Amino acid sequence: MSLNLSFKLLPILGIALGVASLVVPRFLNIFVAIFLIVYGLVGYGFIR
């Protein structure tokens, strides 16, 4: 059940970070880094 929730949450997070990077392009690296870290932690099951 938690894995299903993470698959629903990650696309929403991706869209939000994409819109934020369009609004504030200089923070694109920070947004991408945070997204990749969270994606990796969810993928390995550290965050449920």
Structure description:
- The chain has helices at 2-23, 28-44.
- It has two helices and no strands.
- The chain has one domain (2-44).
- With 48 residues, it is an all-alpha fold.
- Helix 1 (2-23) packs antiparallel against helix 2 (28-44).
Itemize the secondary structure elements and their pairings.
Elements: H1 2-23, H2 28-44
Question: Which keywords apply here?
Answer:
48 residues; 81% helix; mainly alpha
Order of helices and strands: HH
Number of domains: 1
Work out the number of β strands: 0
Low-confidence spans: none
Radius of gyration: 12 Å
Envelope shape: elongated
Structural class: mainly alpha
> Helix fraction?
over 70%
Short characterization:
This protein is mainly alpha-helical and 48 residues long.
